[in-house]
Amino acid sequence: MPPPRRGIDSAEREREMAVTMEDDNGYFYLRYDVGHKGIFGHEFLEFEFRPDGKLRYANNSNYKNDTMIRKEVFLHRPRRLPSHRHRKRDHEGR
């Protein structure tokens, strides 16, 4: 997995997308980073999807002296998705 890039100048960081895929073990990694330097300083959004199910989000803005917002969650595959037929039947019975 490529390490996170730090110390990138704003011109290089404006649009960055890294996708790595290996067919042998089903490994998939996606990182999308978009940002700009404006009147509130360097602002950016960053999303990262990792093969272990971790979703990472970062939002940096100095608007109203905000600090960087970082969130991490783990995504799990549902055991079974209900079919459209089952959902319709559940709503009709009420």
TrEMBL record:
<dbReference type="InterPro" id="IPR004023">
    <property type="entry name" value="Mago_nashi"/>
</dbReference>
<protein>
    <submittedName>
        <fullName>Protein mago nashi like</fullName>
    </submittedName>
</protein>
<dbReference type="Pfam" id="PF02792">
    <property type="entry name" value="Mago_nashi"/>
</dbReference>
<dbReference type="InterPro" id="IPR036605">
    <property type="entry name" value="Mago_nashi_sf"/>
</dbReference>
<dbReference type="GO" id="GO:0035145">
    <property type="term" value="C:exon-exon junction complex"/>
</dbReference>
<feature type="compositionally biased region" description="Basic residues">
    <location>
        <begin position="76"/>
        <end position="94"/>
    </location>
</feature>
<dbReference type="GO" id="GO:0008380">
    <property type="term" value="P:RNA splicing"/>
</dbReference>
<feature type="region of interest" description="Disordered">
    <location>
        <begin position="75"/>
        <end position="94"/>
    </location>
</feature>
<comment type="similarity">
    <text>Belongs to the mago nashi family.</text>
</comment>
<keyword id="KW-0539">Nucleus</keyword>
